[in-house]
Amino acid sequence: MRQVLLLNATYEPLTTLSLHRAVILVLREKADVVHRDGRGAVLRSATRTLDVPSVIRLRRYVRIPYRTRIPLTRAALMRRDNFRCAYCGQRAETIDHVIPRSKGGPHTWENCVASCMPCNHRKADRLLEELGWALRVAPAVPHGAHWRLIGAQLDGDPQWAPYLVETAA
């Protein structure tokens, strides 16, 4: 699934979104294309031709509310873990509680990780010590205003680099 970097009207990075959503924003004249796809890909319809965007910018400024704690959602957790299983590194499809909820584990950032189906089923409601497993990376709460862009420097388009320099700090 191709991702597009979304910038605020001030060129501040907001998030990444699907190509489909980006094209809709451009066609509805809510956003402008800042950088086209590096390979020169084009989308065609019966009446229009549109260069595939890599970076788009909103025409109107969107205020981002300050939050002391980022809400734990499936999408945010998958983004934090870069869609990789915390146990084996394969593509993750599910969420797993490191300390199972059946054993008193909380539903918090520090106890939830992305997991592939085989690892999630093998672990079931057991503790890591019972299986002899270890986490590849300790789960933590994402920080900063641009937490949705975690991992974007690694898997994004090289044209995103100038906009993501400030978010890496």
Keywords:
21% helix, 22% strand, single chain, two-stranded antiparallel ribbon, HNH, HNH_nuc, 169 residues, hydrolase, four-stranded mixed β-sheet, 8 strands, HNH endonuclease
List the helices and strands and how they pair.
Elements lengths: L2 E5 L5 E6 H9 L3 E6 L5 E3 L4 E3 L1 E6 L15 H7 L13 E4 L14 E4 L1 H7 L4 H4 L20 H4 L5 H4 L5
Parallel strand pairs: 1-6
Antiparallel strand pairs: 1-2, 3-6, 4-5, 7-8
Number of domains: 2
Mean pLDDT comes to 87
For the largest beta sheet, what order do the strands appear in spatially?
2-1-6-3
Task: Please estimate the helix content.
Answer: 10-25%
> How far is the first residue's CA from the last residue's CA?
27 Å
Strand content: 15-25%
Query: What's the helix count?
Result: 6
Poorly predicted residue ranges: none
The whole-angstrom Rg is 19 Å
Structural class: alpha+beta
Order of helices and strands: EEHEEEEHEEHHHH
Quick one: overall form? elongated
Main sheet characteristics: 4 strands, mixed
DSSP strand count? 8
